[in-house]
Design brief:
The chain is an alpha/beta fold and 205 residues long. The protein has one domain: 3-Layer(aba) Sandwich (Rossmann fold), CATH 3.40.50. Strands 3-2-1-4-5-7-6 form a 7-stranded mixed β-sheet, sandwiched between helices. Helix 5 crosses helix 7. It is globular. The model has no long low-confidence stretch (mean pLDDT 96).
Length: 205
């Protein structure tokens, strides 16, 4: 398992330094699609800054926050107002803790699929599909490599995370193709930073 505990305190600052506001704008752009959701899963949520937005945008939702780094969970807890604490359940672990049955109206997987080799990605996306309600939505925000400078930057990023967090995967998977191959269809898509970051909302079925 990759270990993001060491870089958790500086993770957001590094992301902002490299990508500016684009990385946050991309993760926020589709949140209104979950405004009526009752149960939302955020997987690999990192430091938890997005949690505040989700709790505000989806006022009636219970949020399950699944994160493999305990340091990230500690930071995420600080993002929750006391009045919303009862609405959030924090789970420390990997994707195998996701319930294997329809439980969620929405799943948010931002910058999560890129840590998996493509050979393992189908297993993860398949679990997403099984845990969504029939009318559920999957939100994925991640990188899309189209230009030479994007591929070069991705190589540097993967090298950094291999050294700092022990990340095994060293190549961006074709996550959009894998998601569509598991009975998801695209509902809405926005791109940022000259197409380098894509936020795509998928519907089940």
């Amino acid at each position: 398992m990759s270990n993001f505990n060491y870089i958790a305190p500086v993770y957001d600052r590094l992301a902002g330094l490299v990508f500016g506001d684009a990385i946050r704008d991309a993760q926020r752009v589709h949140l209104k699609a979950f405004s009526a959701a009752r149960r939302i899963l955020i997987v690999g949520g990192g430091t938890g800054w997005l949690l505040r937005d989700v709790l505000t945008t989806s006022p009636g939702a219970q949020v399950i926050y699944l994160e493999a780094s305990y340091k990230m969970i500690e930071l995420s807890r600080e993002c929750v107002n006391p009045g919303d604490a009862a609405r959030v359940v924090f789970l420390h672990g990997k994707e195998d803790l996701i319930p294997d049955g329809p439980h969620f109206d929405g799943i948010i997987a931002n910058f999560f699929l890129d840590v998996f080799p493509e050979s393992e990605l189908g297993r993860v996306v398949g679990r997403f599909h099984r845990s969504l309600m029939p009318t559920g939505r999957l939100l994925v925000t991640d990188f899309v490599s189209q230009r030479r400078w994007q591929r070069a930057l991705l190589k540097v990023m993967y090298l950094f995370f291999r050294i700092s967090a022990g990340l095994r995967n060293q190549q961006l998977p074709r996550w959009q193709s894998v998601v569509r191959a598991h009975d998801f269809s695209g509902a809405s898509k926005h791109t940022f930073l000259h197409g380098f970051i894509c936020s795509e909302l998928f519907r089940k079925g």
